[in-house]
Amino acid sequence: MRFMVIAKATAESEAGVLPTTEAMVAMGRYSEELVKAGVLVAADGLHPTSRGVRVRFEDEERTVVDGPFAETKELIAGYSILEVASREEAIEWVRRAPNLPPGQVGEVEIRQIFEAADFGDNATAEVAAFADGVGELGRANVAQWRAEAAAQQEQGGN
């Protein structure tokens, strides 16, 4: 089972305050522990929303809205993806994460990632093929696909 661990933004992270060297070392050690245990799939911190955009979809219309965005408690400062045996194991790993600096309060949300089997009869062979294309197989072929897309653009195709 895969779980996304979503680190909620804080006033500090939204203000662009970078973590201290000590905090980065502690997080690095924690991430190293996750890697050695074979449970860490990915992990990254995100720039504040002042450097981001939102794209709103309404019917055929697409509207781009520049950040920053309000409601810090609803924003994401970082994420990790853990591959573990259960929700309980994901919780246990998250409980081992380093503390924030004194006076700061943080929160993470843990959400299970859908697998093709979760979709039951809707996960036909065709659907599974798409899932493979954006999953492991997709990651393995990304460089090739980017090169093909660039060559097609140079030739004036879409």
Explain what this protein looks like in three dimensions.
The protein has 158 residues and is an alpha+beta fold. The chain folds into two domains: 112 residues, 2-Layer Sandwich (Alpha-Beta Plaits); 39 residues, no CATH class. It has five helices and six strands, in the order βααββββαβαα. It has a four-stranded antiparallel beta sheet with strand order 2-5-1-6. A two-stranded antiparallel ribbon has the order 3-4. The longest helix is centred in the C-terminal third of the chain and has 19 residues. The two termini are 37 Å apart. The model has no long low-confidence stretch (mean pLDDT 87).
Task: Summarize it.
It contains five helices and six strands, in the order E-H-H-E-E-E-E-H-E-H-H. The chain is of the alpha+beta class.
List the helices and strands and how they pair.
Layout: E1 2-8, H1 11-14, H2 21-36, E2 40-45, E3 53-58, E4 61-66, E5 76-83, H3 87-95, E6 108-112, H4 125-134, H5 136-154
Antiparallel strand pairs: 1-5, 1-6, 2-5, 3-4
Q: Which features would summarize this protein structure in a list?
A:
single chain, 158 residues, alpha+beta, Alpha-Beta Plaits, 2 domains, 4-stranded antiparallel β-sheet, two-stranded antiparallel ribbon
> Low-confidence segments, ≥5 residues, pLDDT <50?
none
Number of strands: 6
- Average per-residue pLDDT, rounded, comes to 87
**Helix and strand run:** EHHEEEEHEHH
Major β-sheet profile:
4 strands, antiparallel
Helix vs. strand class:
alpha+beta
Shape descriptor reads globular
The CATH level-2 architecture of the largest domain is identified as: 2-Layer Sandwich
> How many angstroms separate the termini?
37 Å
Strand order of the largest sheet: 2-5-1-6
Number of helices: 5
CATH class placement of the largest domain: Alpha Beta
- How many independent structural domains? 2
What is the CA-atom radius of gyration, in angstroms?
19 Å
- Beta-sheet strand percentage? 15-25%
**What is CATH's topology name of the largest domain?**
Alpha-Beta Plaits
Q: Helix share of residues?
A: 25-40%
Look at the structure and name the CATH superfamily of the largest domain: Dimeric alpha+beta barrel
